[in-house]
Amino acid sequence: MGFTDNNSKKAAYAAFEEIANGPAFDEPSEGFGWDDAVEESSGAKFEPVPDGDYWFTVTGFERGWYEARPGSKLASCNQAEIQFTIDWQNEAGEWRKNKIVYKLKLSRKLQWLIYEFFESIGLRRKGDGTTTMPWNDIIGKVGICEVGHHLSDRGGVFNDINKCYPPEDAPTVVRNKRP
Known about the structure:
The protein is an alpha+beta fold. The chain is built from two helices and five strands, in the order αβββαββ. The chain is globular, with a radius of gyration of 21 Å.
């Protein structure tokens, strides 16, 4: 498959250059060369968000696919991969910003979770009935969710979104400030 004209070819090369070189930054590159010396650092380490209820902002969204494993109770289906950003304060009083991806499977068995998410960010209300979901309107919306965690096979701690609260069911005390 080739290019039909020079403009298409130039646009493709320009797009490749942007991907290959990354965005322009005002600061020096944070990347390392293969032979660069790497010093021991006491820089910030990942801190999982402690379990509890938090305000979140939707900062990303991708359309994905859930591939069911053999014997799974849920069939393969579309999956919304929604990025929640949570600003929170650790025990030392330092503010942290964590991103947690909420993988919402678009299955009839779990449609109540889809509706619950849209209620939590104010794009649907109880009593709206059957309706299509405005996926393109979710970026920037805020809501309250319950954050939990799970342990990986290697012992790492990772955050999960356990629940999204519709406004009328949301807790009145949360562990962070509204964004």
